[in-house]
Amino acid sequence: MARPTLGMIGIGRMGDPMARRLLEAGYAVTVLDTNAEAIGRLKEAGATAGESPADVAARSDVTFLSLPTPDIVDKVAFGKNGIASAETPAGKTVVDLSTTGPEGARALAKGLGEAGFTVVDCPVSGGVGGAEKGTLALMASGEEAAFERLKPIFEVLGRPFHVGPEPGMGQMTKVINNLLSVTALAATSEALVLGTKSGLDPEIMVEVFNVSSGQNSASLTKIPKFVLTRTFDFGFALGLSDKDLRLCMQQADAVGVPMPIGSSVREYIKIARARLGADADLTQIIQPMEEWSGVTVAGKAASR
């Protein structure tokens, strides 16, 4: 049985390494992006360049989307020369790896479903490192039969989970996961600012946390690698994090779940974004806290 042909629309920080892994696994991949240099690099790796979203979808059995915002996903799907206008769509599948929120996923599934596509909502987590290593968590929702067909492709990218049958369930899993991740980062940053202001060594504090009950994803990786070193190059923008938390809070409002902790964490993100800009790194969330307290949380490596 011939391998399915694949498309990847959006070859930025996440899409590029995912496309490369698929090429290395022997799949034919057609790529599309507004960045001509990114397309050129992937052509050198064996990809084919598409002319439009409709063209990519027409060439591909499975078209992946890896795009930054719901508006861009909507434009790629339904705008001029969008996926919905592709010829011969029967039997084709669209997998949205973007983070668009549950409402966006449902709208995409409805619109492209009416155009003849099977749609799988499948946001990912694990960052650029996970995309490069093939260790992403893929949170797929939609028809179970479609998930099973796609599973061998998903396993090239990481570990797939079928989280539910309805579009939007993958998105809900993702934005809740991101809320937990940012909450750990905000709380750990606040704790380290307090400790540093009190005269404690932040590197020793992190070591203690990581063998104690305070251990979390921020203390294990984000803080030691990107904050204590003062590199702040985790690779995920404050603006995108703000978008993810907004989508989470919107769904909480829609289903009537109060989120006092989540709301406070989003306020931290909004403050950091306002002070540092949407393109600043997520790990820079600590900087306004440092300014308020008059300290800098740095390890020995920061001065080298």
Structural commentary:
This protein folds into two domains: 6-165, NAD(P)-binding Rossmann-like Domain (Rossmann fold, 3-Layer(aba) Sandwich), CATH 3.40.50; 172-303, N-(1-d-carboxylethyl)-l-norvaline Dehydrogenase, domain 2 (Orthogonal Bundle), CATH 1.10.1040. By secondary structure, the chain is of the alpha/beta class. α1 packs parallel to α6, α4 runs parallel beside α5 and α8 crosses α10 (217-227). β4, α4 (70-78) and β5 (93-96) form a beta-alpha-beta unit. 46% of the residues are buried. Helices cover 53% and strands 12% of the residues. The protein has 13 helices and nine strands. The longest helix has 29 residues, at 169-197.
Give the strand content: 5-15%
What's the total count of β strands?
9
> How many separate domains make up the residues?
2
Helix content: 40-55%
How far apart are the termini? Answer: 55 Å
